[in-house]
């Protein structure tokens, strides 16, 4: 995808003044919001932390303070053992035939995630719920999330991903992937408001929540940036593509 922006999902926080105790099998503990953390632990988060590299950028005026970069209700994570050391070299191992694919899995933020006990937990989504018949899934996003250029992340970015990439015949000539078509019928995506989206299925499809926790699950694209390369929003997208050595707009869009 053309120079796609990274979603700034700064939701893992250092808890100041918290003394951690571990059972024989330590686990990562996820709290959907600071309010949930405070309610369940009786402790209050009084300060947010950030990496030394980001702290330097804040001091230089290149970034807003961490308080201004966080969503209104950031996710709180108690790490397995400790936050660890910033920087350095990451040494990884994978059984994938393509090592780069394994690295990609750690690169993309997802609507949901999986904790150390393999339970589904919130991530980009603050919460999610199915209708009683399992045919409708409502996703609630966190207010105040931003892309790396500071532009707010909203339901419009999910709608752009769905309507303008997944349903676009040039970008997805084979149509949406099979897990978006349970029973052979393509799901429908509805924007409820800026921070709520709803997926509609033709049959009960609660297994979709598993796809929400992996990089191939329902996604989002930075509409404010990518629409300049999309023919629907820019009638001169083909001309722009040819200026950069491509024959068609969708080739440049996916580059």
Automatic annotation (TrEMBL):
InterPro entries: SBP_5, SBP_5_CS, SBP_5_dom
Gene3D superfamilies, sorted: Periplasmic binding protein-like II
GO BP, one annotated term: peptide transport
Domain of life of the organism encoding this protein: Bacteria
Pfam families, sorted: SBP_bac_5
Domain Solute-binding protein family: 120-230
Stored PROSITE patterns: SBP_BACTERIAL_5
GO molecular function terms listed in the Swiss-Prot or TrEMBL record: peptide transmembrane transporter activity
Signal peptide start-end: none
PANTHER family cross-referenced by the UniProt entry: OLIGOPEPTIDE ABC TRANSPORTER, PERIPLASMIC OLIGOPEPTIDE-BINDING PROTEIN, PERIPLASMIC BINDING COMPONENT OF ABC TRANSPORTER
Name of this protein: ABC transporter substrate-binding protein
């Amino acid at each position: 995808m053309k120079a796609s922006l990274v979603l700034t999902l700064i939701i893992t926080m250092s808890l100041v003044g918290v003394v951690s105790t571990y059972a024989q099998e330590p686990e990562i503990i996820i709290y959907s919001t600071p309010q949930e953390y405070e309610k369940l632990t009786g402790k209050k988060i009084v300060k947010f932390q950030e990496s030394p590299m980001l702290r330097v950028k804040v001091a230089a005026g290149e970034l807003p303070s961490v308080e201004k970069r966080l969503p209104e209700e950031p996710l709180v994570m108690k790490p397995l053992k400790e936050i660890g050391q910033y920087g350095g070299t990451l040494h990884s191992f994978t059984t994938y035939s393509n090592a780069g694919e394994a690295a990609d899995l750690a690169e993309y933020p997802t609507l949901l995630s999986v904790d150390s006990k393999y339970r589904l937990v919130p991530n980009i989504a603050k919460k999610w719920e199915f209708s009683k018949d399992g045919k409708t899934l409502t996703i609630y996003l966190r207010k105040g999330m931003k892309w790396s250029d500071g532009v707010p992340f909203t339901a419009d970015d999910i709608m752009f991903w769905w309507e303008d990439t997944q349903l676009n015949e040039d970008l997805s000539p084979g149509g949406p992937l099979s897990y978006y078509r349970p029973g052979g019928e393509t799901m429908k995506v509805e924007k409820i408001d800026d921070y709520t989206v709803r997926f509609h299925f033709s049959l009960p499809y609660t297994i979709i929540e598993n796809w929400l926790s992996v990089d191939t699950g329902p996604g989002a694209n930075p509409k404010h940036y990518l629409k300049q390369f999309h023919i629907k929003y820019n009638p001169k997208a083909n001309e722009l593509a040819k200026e950069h050595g491509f024959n068609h707009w969708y080739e440049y869009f996916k580059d």
